[in-house]
Design a protein that fits this description.
This protein is about 40% helix and about 15% strand. The protein is built from 21 helices and 18 strands. Strands 2-1-3-4-6-5 form a six-stranded parallel sheet, sandwiched between helices. α11 crosses α12. The protein is globular and about 75 Å long. The structure holds thiamine diphosphate (TPP). The site of thiamine diphosphate has 19 residues, from α13, α15 and α17. This is Thiamine pyrophosphate-binding protein.
Length: about 575
Amino acid sequence: MAQQVSDLIVERLLEWGVDTIFGFPGDGVDGFFESLRTHKDKLRFIQVRHEEAAAFAAVGYAKYSGRIGVCVATSGPGGIHLLNGLYDAKCDGQPVLAITGHTFHDLIGMDYQQDVDLDKLFMDVSVFNERVMGPTHAVNCVDAAIRTAYARRGVSHITIPKDIQEWPVSDKHRSGGNVPQHSGDWSAPSSAHPNSALIRKAADIINAGSKVAILAGRGALHCREEVSQLAELVGGPVIKPLLGKAVLPDRSPYTTGGIGLLGTAPSIDVMDECDTLIMIGTSFPYMEFLPKPGQAKCVQIEIDAARVGLRHQVDIGLVGDSKAILTDLLPLLKENKGKKFLKTAQENMKSWNKLMEERGTRTSMPLKPQVVTHTLNKLLDDDAIVSSDSGTIATWTARYIEMRGTMKFSLSGSLATMANGLPYSIGAAAAFPGRQVVCVVGDGGLTMLMGELATLVKYKFPVKVIVIKNNVLGQIKWEQMILEGNPEYGVELQPIDFAKVAEACGAAGYTIERPEDVERILIEALRHDGPAVIQAVVDPNEPPMPGKATTKQAIKFAESILRGQKHGMSIIKDIAEDKIREVI
Ligand SMILES: Cc1ncc(C[n+]2csc(CCOP(=O)(O)OP(=O)(O)O)c2C)c(N)n1
């Protein structure tokens, strides 16, 4: 039975089905933590080592489970630390609730200890953002926060002044208009549905196309069957932006895999040649990889009307749930008999997969990062949950970790932040005990939130952290060279022995240095009954080559070498070797 305001909040969270909350304590949330303590049998608190990780863990939890992720932080600095993770939720449209403390209610604005108006600070990041004013406001705030986070797929924030958290439950100051128990704990799924005339028009456009391309993002993750049927009917290859990597298995005959700099060459060909584009649940940002304006007719299926036409001109926009819309659309589509466009894409994928296999099985030293992810892929369970950080690791993961079975995959999509990979895995392990949880991270990204290795140990989360150790901020090194034409600067990292760090935290630590050891050590580490860090010491000069390098990129690269890029000849040798292997 609720005694204080915080109890009302915790009990309402329980009524909404919240079972886990990630966070870090502080005097600004002492009252709330007392309620967490008295409800600990029903609501699990996962203590992380940095509030940013709490927010990322909540995003990972939301992304993988589809349920709201919840995090808590103290007033002032704790709340400020949450922000990057909350922006990740905002940018990738995930329902996350952040609960923070504020200073005493009657000292707000008086420069008192930790007097940061987090509700003002969080205005941009949140879709719902309120100060809890007392016991009769608390439940209304929780209900509105959770409903809004689900409905608008974003961040809700409630901040509770330190003393109000401990105010006794009472109706004494209830306002006349605030009818007791008027607020409901029910979130309605979106019921928007386009009318049948629009769906007919969309079908006509698709039926008139002879080279149909399908771009299926995170909004299509729940319609694998419908997307496969669509691809089969229209003979259209499916391209998957990274957040939609699990829409289809990577070896499905219908997909050409990823898009963008870390995508595949066959996807580039499909986009270059298509005459019709069907976009499903995607706001993939890099428009230069989409068909050129005027090249293709476009049907966009999208839950958020405001995003229709955001990246590409649209002939018909169908707003609503993609599964429901595809179910209505499929019976109206004519079968493309020859399926020539799809067959060509399938042939191209054979060559691409062969090339990836070549690059992933090199036995030369230094060890190539692709050899690690290529081998890891073969060893993963068919229901593994894999997270990646931003960096060259995203390229190695995108290209080598193949979705199959019920595997799930994510990374920080639109925000593209570093350091999310390990905390996403904490969220995944909390949501899915018993499933294999793995993250592939860079040495730069891991160092940012390395304390979370201790969190894995504390909660016995058997997460396997694969750190691709190149002692450099690899992605930026290559961007400086290939996109800017500059020699690398400010990107070298002081080497760290991550296996020893893991051991110091109480996890297992493994080191891989030679290609011939990769499989054996990965098998041993994956079998380890607990958290483990596997550091793979790799070639820092292995470039994350785009699916098709452009002349401009080659010129910029040459410029960087001429302007003094270190190890220029060794990099050229690596690239030349890759090219030679492509042609022989
Ligand atoms: C928080 C944050 N800071 C900086 C960046 C810019 N950035 C993107 S990738 C990257 C390098 C990542 O290095 P590392 O984790 O070592 O992975 P690698 O690229 O070497 O595989 C940087 C600095 C970012 N995306 N996020």
